[in-house]
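Hey, quick one: can you model this chain's 3D structure?
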Amino acid sequence: MKRVTQAFSILIVFLGLLVMAGSTGTDKGAEQAPVEPAPAAGVDTTARSTQPRAGDAVKGIRADLNSILETSKLLVEHGDIGRTFSQLGAVLALNDNPDPGKNTLARFMRNALGGLAANADIDTVKGLLLAVAGMDRAALTGQNSVSQGLIMMMERNMYGQPKAQADVKTSSLRSLLFMLQGADVNLNLKVFGLDTHIPLLYFVDSPDHPAGSPGTVNGITKNVAGWAIGEIATARRWGREGKIRLGERFVLMDQFQALDWVFYKKRYHFTFLGMTLMKFDGLSGMLSNKLVQLFMPAAITDAFPALLDLAGGMSAAEYNGGRYDGFTSTSWKDRYGTAGKRHRLFALFGPIMEYYWNAQISGGKTGAGDMVALLAGLNEIDPAAYRPLTRFGRPNPRATFREAGGRGHESVVRTLEDSGLLTALLKGGRDHPGDMLAPALDLAITITRALSAKDSAPPQYLREHPDFTGSTLMDVVFFEWNLSGKKPDRARIDQRIDGVIAALFEKKPGETKNTVAKVAGLVQALAKAAGDKAYLAAVREDLVKIIQAAQNLMNSQDIDRILPGLDKVLALNDHPDPRKNSLAGFLNRVLRAAAPVSDGDALKGLLRALLAVDRSAMEAHGITEGIIYMAHHNMYAQRRETADINVSQLRSFFFLVENVDRHMPLTVNGQNTGIDLIKLIDSPDHPPLEPGTVRDQTTNLVEWYIGEIVTAVRWGREGKIMLNGRMVAMDQYQAYDWMFFKKRYQLTGMGRIPLKFTGVSGILTNEIVQSFLPPGAKDTVITLAELAGGMSDAEYAGGKYTGFTPSSWKGRYGTGGRRHKVMALFNPIMEFFWNARDPQGGRRTGDFVRLIRALNEIPAAGYQQLFHDGAPNPQATLRHDDRFAGRSVIKTVEDNQLLRIISRSHGPNDNGILAPGLDLLILIIAKLDEKDSAPAEYRKRHPDFSGNTVLDVLFHEARINGLKKIATAPTDPIEETIKDLFAAPQGEPRNAVAKLHGSVKVLEQIMSAYH
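Sure thing. Here's the predicted structure for all 1011 residues.
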């Protein structure tokens, strides 16, 4: 599937143009709309496009994206979310057999991927994009738009009747897909039952053609489907060139008139041995002829009205609201001149048909066959088992098209139609005239036209790539991905498709369900949860906030900074050897640190820990702003850009953890006594029957500190904090402040009189204690105070906080959470790790610490302290953060403000994307984790299940192993991932990340050109 993936990657690169910002509004060049049915009324201009202007392209992209997001908000606010999940569940329920070969959903996916693979070469992708860009934009809007046409073809049968009440139950869309597959045949002349191997199409000609052109395409293809596509494509071209013969003159016709002409007016002759045996008016006259029907498969003749329906025409009865009851040898005659009245779906299919046909007749390629393969891949009606509509001249009550809507005929496309899932997306909101398809197609048109503009390749790119021979931005994109136009190897494609199907639909050893079934379980749980109105209202609110935040971001100037920021991050892919590559090294380190907490139990515990997050901490001055603050201020709360110390508080904190993730032995006169310093720390401030500190629960300094935080927060909510001789309750910020500034500590064993401290701050600023700390820890302990989001009086009044001394921190008590509330997120996570146990019974706090350490990119070795001999050290590491430029991933993200751009609010009506995203996650987890929500039926079927909630059920089904066992696995999955991303494949000059980086750089140049 590599080719398919690459093709989709190109489409994604195109969509990268969405970041081009500009003023709101749109200026879309409308094509000539189909006119009333006077045959020579106008010229079809759909294949012509003017040179796009940069401003128009930017405005059009912005307008389309706003339309898509507005429609999304309406769907969320007014749509039936519960029903949507149920509809999706109905589709996933077609995962109905453990054997992928007999599984309805698996078979559909295999066929669809096979049809897609036949069109996955780059020439086809490029040609399709250009074809769609040439469509009539006027057909995207209005009452008879492309979207309305697709809805009609799903909701009605090929006779225009609502399929629910009609005799023929199969939709027009499914009938058309079936016809295309059935028509993908070569029909030969048979004499006395013997095959002459002479194609019947060779005997079909027409007197209606311009001079120098053949009457039909019978000399180009023997395939029935290909011949029909060729006839339609040729009629479109003749129409816009004024070469359609109507009577005794040549006339101009738009694409709908031309389609009508070939269906109903073009004269066809069946000639044999120089004699004209039969004459027909249009394809309709030919296919409705009783004698012709004897030679044609019923799959073609029965379903032919579906092709007429694609034209969007109608009979007089349909036009007046009546019923169209069947297709006979005469019923089609009153349809001439009506194409495009009911809908204009052909405006989309016409250019695509013409592209495929032209691809076929230039170079001998099987273009039309590829189109048939693409659409036939969606067909689920078996031609071999097809039962025709008539039998012995009478209606066949058991005809396939009459039964295809009932039980026993389940299919993916029918389920999608009947569920209304696609229709909901196409119809849009209540009073909103738009939909998802129209702006998405318009977006594709705008981007493709902009990319394919003449001589649009950036001069800078031409200078940097002397081997590039193209001239447009589209050529640049394809060249950047280093893709050829060759057809992919079919055997390899089939092998990869088999791999995808196996991964989704085959059960792994020891598991009861395949991957799709596990997803279906989650969807089912969400559908059930949607019945809670209060819960659903909160979910809607968060979803709308997320969409609104995305929309505001798109319309802000910040959008212009995303690509340059990504460019800088991807530039850290700086060495062909993954072991020496900065970005690869960071990713490898983080993945390995995350491996111990990637199993199902740990993930479920982390999700449940989030339930304790204070949801009010997601509003103003909350978690999101705290993370941003920590990334853009140093540990003294000064802005990094203007401060003496220009390392962020966030990175200083990671560096602190690196330094204090250690045991603290007591040393006397330079000699290690073997006594753990942590064991000597105690406190008189504790509830009855509980120890004063966690000194007996760990020997690691940073883990001791986490234990102290967790314990203080618990005591606070239980009303057990000792303050001035009495027990009081405190919120988590007050509890942290108490521990850091007020809790009394004492260090015994250092002499006769124990050392006494007020708060952790008193311990960390004590000269004796600091003598045991490594230099990096002594300099960065202030990050522990800053983590709480507190501030001094001077800071609160807008002043500057210029240092951390044994007394300067005292004014901070009671201010925790004023500046930000990032601890609201960290506290529940730390509490989970402190209380959780690994399989050996040990605390999992070390797993959390190692994960934090993995984010540190400041080496402890060679660290230069802030002070040297009592004076500020001008060479201090934290004063020269520029030395890490080009080597630190997190610094690069900070410097380019990527975190701030994604997280912050961009308007008065949003709170950023992360805050509502986290709130939505908590809402969903809480609903799934409601007590006793696990179905009783599931417990009966799974006696080994010991959980209580739906969340337990989902994790029991998933059986997530994570990356914990990489040491004993046959292959190291992390190593394989790093290799796939950062090692260039054999024979290729760049790795996958470098290709992505190249695309980002191209998009930057495109933005520059269009601004």
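One thing worth noting: Confidence is low (pLDDT under 50) at residues 1-49.
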